[in-house]
Amino acid sequence: MSRYAEKSTAISGVGQSEIYRKPQVLPFELAVRACERAIADAGLKPEDIDGASCWPATPSGSVAGMGAASIPDIVNSLGLKLNWWSGADNAAQLSPIMEAVAAIAAGYATHVLCWRALGERWVPSYGSAAAAAGGNPRMQPSGWMEFLLPYNAPSAAIWCAIHASTHMSRHGITREQMSAIPINQRRNAALNPKAIYRDPITLDDYMSARMVATPFSLLDCDVPCDGTTAVIVSRLDAARDLKSKPVVLEAVGAGAYDRMDSWFARSDYPHMAMHDAARMMWSRTDLKPKDVDSAHLYDGFTWLTMNWLEALGLCGEGESGAFIEGGTRIALDGELPLNTNGGQLSEGRMHGFGHLHEAVLQLRGEAGARQVRRQPKVSVVGNGGGSLGGAVLLRQDM
Amino acid sequence: MLPLITEINQHFWCGGADGRLHILRCATCRTWIHPYAARCPKCRSTEVAPEPVSGRGTVAGFTVNHQPWLKDVPVPYVVAVVELEEQADIRLTTNMPRTPIEAVRVGLPVKVYFEPHGQIFLPLFEAA
Fold first, then answer.
1. Helix, strand or coil for residue A230?
2. Per-residue pLDDT tens digits for A145-167
3. Which of A154, A214, A265 is closest, CB to CB, to B89?
4. Which domain holds residue B75?
5. pTM, entire model
6. In sequence order, what E strands does chain B have?
7. Residue of A136, A149, A151, A261 best to disrupt the B interface, most CBs of B under 10 A
8. Which residue of A has its CA nearest to B96?
9. Domains (ranges, CATH) in chain A?
10. ipTM score
11. Which residues of B fall within a CB distance of 8 Å from A151?
């Protein structure tokens, strides 16, 4: 086994439910479907699954909201027999993947089912009083909300907008440049039958969209939805015997090298935990940013994607505005196809796992009408913003 | 929505009773610390206690929020992050209701004032 355990693991199967903007099917049912599809995609049976991991920690009985499917409820619904399981609030949406790698390396499990289950339309998670209080039953903010709620700042839109204002002002980045992210992603979403929004948008649409929190308008914010993405992380030698082409985990990263939790206390503000995740990821591989054939970067807000481009070294510090300007470089036929499924801005907020799912399809050459013509050999996925950051580098099997 | 006052944040939220802003500081290496930490993150000293600061700083970043997230809170309003002049990485989230929205910019010099709510003295900032 290599010094880095992830290189001996692979994603052996992916599955995704329908994605709904209007509530139609109980989100927990969508989660079960996604898990069944991932198991079938790998050519496995439920009895082959011996590990499970989800994010965030989800109490059993949850059927909607930010975490719509707990590990016990999935186990009971699919009749799984687990050696190991873990659902935890740790380094961002990709944590289950890193947890699975560790469990496989430890010999706890061979095939780990991982999922991210959203039911944010069935039960709205953001903007509600309960969400605003950070889940504190006394309705008084604590934790990272302590310094935000007293100033009527309950939303990540506000926290990210403040970072964006600093970064854009420092580097002269404009909203016109930023528009390339949502416009390009909507163009990609037109080729994705599952995407919630598929009609093209123009620069005029972008500049005239309703403002949410400067510099973010409605078109800079992702779209809450109901839906689940599931993936199976397997030991690489076991994955090679299965139905689908394994996609190897070349490197993972989830560093936390500075002050945590407070969104603004990092010594290198407006950098975020993503910069640490990227640094750790690149430290675990001989591949370089120039080797990346497609990028699937978190877009809860457009600027987060730009910050991820910089954090990963896919462009220079402060150069993301110029890099994406006009959208040519990041288009499906550009030098760095970006968020080829339409991302969370158009497909829906599948919360990072949508990006992971898409990267696997692109590497397998199974992305249909939106397949990058020169099939990617190496793809990067970056998830999270603020204090949460996780990155994985994926590659085709040798 | 006011914060829950605890043993570790009382100096910050209630300290404005004397008209000054109070931030934790390491007595050994003199590093300012915010939010709370039980040891100095620079030198690991245990000698960490609140001290008053000048209350002056600059706007590091801000947003004009237009979305009505919270009922009863009229929009638009500014949410800013202020860097204190004592140490750039002491950054406080705040509102600036006394400063015209169009006057708020990154780099604007600001000073603290307090809005009393019972035992809490909410630190707010305005153009200096």
1. strand
2. 899 999 999 999 999 999 999 99
3. A265
4. 10-127
5. 0.96
6. 22-26, 32-33, 48-52, 56-65, 77-84, 91-95, 109-117, 120-127
7. A151
8. A151
9. 5-125+224-239 (3.40.47.10)
10. 0.97
11. 79, 93-95
